[in-house]
Amino acid sequence: MSIKKESPNSLTDYGINVKIKLASLWTTLMFLYIYADYFRLMTPGKLEHMIKLQSPMGPTSPGILVIFSVLLIIPALMIFLSIFLKPQINKWLNIIIALIYACISILIIVSSINKEWQTFFVIFNFVEILVFAMIISQACKWSRKEN
């Protein structure tokens, strides 16, 4: 039996609700998206492609812009949904969406791996995959007792 002594300088470690953890992870992910896209604008030819209405998926069209918009709207909504959804739906929605987006990040890494000017983008995507893994981990460990 050990006796745990608290020193007068000890800091209190408060438990954080899993909903707050998930919302924080999705917020982190959105910052990663914003900075990666911002830095990508500084790569050679990127602005010229944008002026010529060329996207990574071909000519820019209203449909392509809708697809890219939805891809960014979903993680942004997950910040809000992670706080306000009921636990059972919340848990599975976080797992499923994080898995889908992790797969997208893997595809982006594969398509960018040997391009010198995309090295930073590959690093961002590796970090995004780590964040997705933390989201999945937090959602999987969600206690049944927690409301």
How would you sum up this structure in a few lines?
The chain contains five helices and two strands; from the N terminus they run H-H-E-E-H-H-H.
Describe the protein's topology.
Elements: H1 18-40, H2 46-51, E1 54-55, E2 58-59, H3 62-84, H4 87-112, H5 119-140
Antiparallel strand pairs: 1-2
Describe the 3D structure.
There is one protein chain. The protein is mostly helical. The chain has one domain (18-140). Helices cover 68% and strands 3% of the residues. The chain starts with 17 loop residues before the first helix and ends in a 7-residue tail after the last helix.
Oligomer: single chain
| Spans of at least 5 consecutive residues with low confidence | none
The averaged pLDDT comes out at: 89
% residues in beta strands: under 5%
Helix percentage range: 55-70%
Structural class: mainly alpha
What number of domains? 1
End-to-end Cα distance: 33 Å
Described by the principal axes of the CA atoms, the overall outline is elongated
- Spatially, the strands of the biggest sheet line up as 1-2
Per DSSP, the total helix count is 5
* Biggest beta sheet summary: 2 strands, antiparallel
Keywords:
147 residues; mainly alpha; two-stranded antiparallel ribbon; 5 helices; elongated
